Amino acid sequence: MKSIKCCQKTINKKEECECKNSLDHLSRIEGQIKTLKKYIEDGKRCEDVAVLTTSIAKSFDTLRSRTLKNFFVNEVLSDRKFSKKQLEKIDKIFKLYKK
Questions:
Q1: How many separate domains does the chain show?
Q2: Separation of alpha carbons 73 and 66, rounded Å
Q3: Distance of CA 62 to CAs 21, 45, 68, Å?
Q4: pLDDT reading at 72 higher than 60
Q5: Among the listed ranges 19-33, 52-66, 74-88, which one has the minimum average pLDDT value?
Q6: Helices H, strands E: what count in the chain?
Q7: Inside any domain, residue 27
Q8: Whole domain around residue 60: which residue ranges?
């Protein structure tokens, strides 16, 4: 199995690269912000602007939470290997944090 560089470490190609996921997420946020600018330029209703602004904020919160989780797993707990079940528990903790 071929390995690739991701998040300052080498991972198996089958593993999910969180750096790529974060970049994809940022691209979606960037698209939402471009749309928001267009809404404001076009004089869209305040309600439409507010709904999109809330969506952008939630999307950014999701990215922030995932980044914090990855920092925790990769930096704070870097000397440990985790089972899928343990990683699911960590995910659950950070989902609670996000609420």
A1: 1
A2: 11
A3: 12, 26, 10
A4: yes
A5: 74-88
A6: 3, 2
A7: yes
A8: 17-98
